[in-house]
Design brief:
Layout lengths: L18 H16 L2 H9 L4 H16 L38
Length: about 100
Amino acid sequence: MAKKGQPKTGGRKKGGRNKATKDVQSFVDAVFSKVDPIALCNKLLASEDEKVVAGVLKMLMEYRFGKPAQPVTGENGQGPVLHKLEIINHIERPVRPSALGTN
């Protein structure tokens, strides 16, 4: 690891994709070189199976507009989940009788 103030000398270049991402992208490019993705999407949207159509539309909407925010709620959908943290600085130890029977 580079020390503070020294330039980075190894590893992946900043913003570069990792090998797995490159491999997946190459695979998708190979598939799309054989199949027209727009024609395939239109075919799927014309499907009689409502689940297929809904899935394609959902995916397209998420790619175009982003996934909707997921609200964080408590039990039964009531309000946000709150976490309360209390720090106890000092706790007095309870006085216990000794094992020998004397205080």
